[in-house]
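Section 3.1: Structural characterization of target chains.
Under the original work plan, the team committed to producing a structural model for every single-chain target entering the pipeline before any wet-lab resources were allocated. The record below documents one such target. The sequence was received from the expression subgroup and is listed exactly as submitted; it comprises 122 residues.
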Amino acid sequence: MEINRSAPVSAARAPCLLITTPSERAAQIGTLSVPRVMRTVTVVIEAVAAGADLDAQLDQIGLEVEQAMAGVGLLGGLIKSPPQYSEMQMDREDTASPPVGYLRMAWQCDMATTHINPDIPI
């Protein structure tokens, strides 16, 4: 079974992380012959947990994800500055059997490309 952002994750697959890049802002910078584009990409990491003690599970997963994201640096030059933590949302489905909880965390990542090669960071 394929897991993607349009299909909910079943409790049987928990705990797990879903990583998406749901949005990007872009602005042209400079007046060179090949214009550069500054991009701010939103990276969302959503933790899914099921069973008893959901808050404790999600708190621990959140801590581990934040620690990992703090250590990614510039991703080998892919981004211009370390990811900036921007938001967190928590949700629960207590009526599910077993109960399921979600922790959604977002980071902003800045990168620069050109119009000609938008998939290659500069």
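The first strand starts at residue 16 and ends at 29.
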